[in-house]
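Sanity check

After download, print the first record. It should look like this:
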Amino acid sequence: MHDENATPTPDGATPDGITPDEGATGSPGDGRSRRTVLRTAGLAGAGLGLGAFAGGTAYADAPGAAPADTTAQAPARKGRTMIGVPFQRRSTVRVGIVGLGNRGGSMIDLFLAIPGVRVVALCDPVKEKTAAAAKKVTAAGQPAPATYTKGEDDYENLCKRGDIDFVYVATPWDSHFAICKAAMLNGKHVGVECPLAMRLDELWELVDLSEQTRRHCMQLENCCYGKNEMRVLRMAHAGKFGELLHGAGAYNHDLRGLMFDPDYYEGPWRRLWHTRLRGDLYPNHGFGPVANYMDVNRGDRVTHISSFGTPALGLAEYRRAHMPPGDPSWKETYIESDRTISLVQTAKGRVIRLEHDVSTPHPYSRINSLGGTKGVFEDYPPRIYIEPDHTDDKWADFSKYADFDHWLWKEHANPPGGHGGMDYIMIFRLMQTMQLGLVPDFDVYDAATWTAPVPLSHLSIKAKGAPQAIPDFTRGLWKKARPGMDSPKPQVKPEA
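Expected structure tokens:
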């Protein structure tokens, strides 16, 4: 999913609580987000949260050390797996929304556009944004929603309501873990903008809570629902690429202007992450689709990651050129690599390349590539070369493979909303699975896996590229093939 406050782009897309790196400084200045100040202060010394599964020793502390067997080191299961667990069928899905900035304030339109969905509660400490969203609800002919605007933690009261089935979270990254936790502990399914959480121990805790509460906790990764991504997914499953070998995904998006905009992010919360981490801050958009192509957690799994990062020069250069003397940003020291490149290995020996770059000039790209023994697809722009269809060593027209489009895109050829319609497709499908009592397309294990590169890439860069083990959040159940994003069209109808 796209960042909660990111500007939509024509083609598609736009982690707090981790110890600042050596020598890093970050001043809140005058414009620091209200949502970040208190939590960051409490979490700044919490470390990377590796002790829960790595015996208290971060892999980065031993450069060159081989990654450990994280299947054996996974904490003992506290509940039953959520793999294959369907939603309870319901005719109406009652939704509570936490976070009504640029992202949440636009996504509410999509919830309201889907029959059988009712928005019953809204939460944001900015009262004006909550009021504007409430007007959208009544304008859609629904009863006035309850509103929660009393400070940073009023989401807890929203989650305690007895008339909510699903909580949607579109807030700054450092709050995702706490809100997801509150939602599940109060009996709600929850979907959150990426990344799921900022620390490895938090990812494990959300996995455990999902299993204990029997509530789904999902990373709402909209890029998995992109038209090209879903077409490539179905082609991969049909064997058009042969045996899969490699893939690549990225978030390369020039955000310098937005990160220095004093109003866009309600303070500099996103920019301040560049004073704390060196690694891939936003892997989900690129990682999620490629993981789906390769059936990660459904017959294969990612085992370890090696990451490398460039010097951090871009934001400081932009500041020199655009920010006046005395601006609070001049108190900040940036350490986040301008470009992070990671290589992820899977149990079957496949390789996934991930990239992240939001601080240098670059046309928007998620790369979105997949290759196998019969050929390759590359996006931005979309092009394909597969045998036996192509034999002249020239890229071919990807549009000629429209027959492989997913049924969701055939049924909704011109979906409303931003990011080329993928936002609507995602919300429509999620609400459909809840209305029909189906298993969701992805689950907490996918969410944790797609987010794990956030802390692990940082550790790998500090360890000069030494591989870091990626936990098996399924605790061994990845070996069994099961359905995922490539879903059949339901043949049943919602309850009357």
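If your output differs, re-run the checksum step. Summary of this record's structure: The radius of gyration is 21 Å.
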